[in-house]
Design goal:
Layout (H helix, E strand, L loop, with lengths): L2 H8 L6 E4 L5 E3 L8 H6 L7 E8 L10 E9 L2 H17 L6 H6 L2 E6 L8 H24 L10 H18 L2
């Protein structure tokens, strides 16, 4: 979620949905002032999602271009998931000898998504569902690669490769619960 990577997506042909850290980008208001991320998160009703339009500034790099608009969506985690997220954050930082900021712990109760998808066509819930689905697909492929060793294509000819892939996918579906 670097500004220059998101910028290339924002001005390209495709839309994007990326997960971002509350301090990971230079957040700006439409007027170019610093966007108060924690104020935004604290302003959400308990357990409710929220969204706003922000400007993504370049992180001090003059050649990076002007700030560009993006849609910020904050998805509130259920209390049990938020607790897991905060516990993981604390243990990782304790292991590395770091102190966690109170704001970082507070923000851990949300998943922050940045997208170019228009609000009038895709609700915040639809964007969050799409992001979750993307990760389910990613994990399914990871399982296929590890369980069936699908990380290397053994056939060289296109027809053999296609048959090998289909046979392995069929095997994966048969053994999956």
């Amino acid at each position: 979620s670097r500004p220059e990577c998101i910028r290339s997506l924002a001005f390209g042909e495709a839309d994007y949905i990326v997960r971002v850290h509350w301090r990971g980008l230079r957040w700006l208001t439409a007027e170019g002032m610093r966007f108060d991320m924690m104020g935004f998160l604290r302003g959400l009703d308990c357990g409710k999602n929220g969204e706003t339009t922000v400007m993504i500034g370049n992180s001090g790099n003059k050649k990076a271009g002007a700030p560009f608009p993006a849609r910020l969506i904050a998805v509130s985690l259920p209390p049990e998931k938020a607790l897991i997220s905060k516990t993981r954050l604390l243990s990782e930082n304790r292991r590395k000898g770091r102190v966690v900021q109170a704001e970082t712990l507070e923000a851990a109760g949300h998943v922050l998504l940045l997208t170019s998808l228009p609000e009038d066509e895709y609700s915040a819930e639809q964007v969050a569902d799409c992001y979750r689905l993307r990760w389910q697909i990613e994990l399914a492929f990871k399982r296929l690669k590890s369980l069936l060793h699908l990380d290397a294509l053994r056939a060289k000819e296109p027809e053999l490769a296609k048959a090998w892939i289909f046979a392995n996918l069929l095997a994966a579906f048969l053994i999956d619960d």
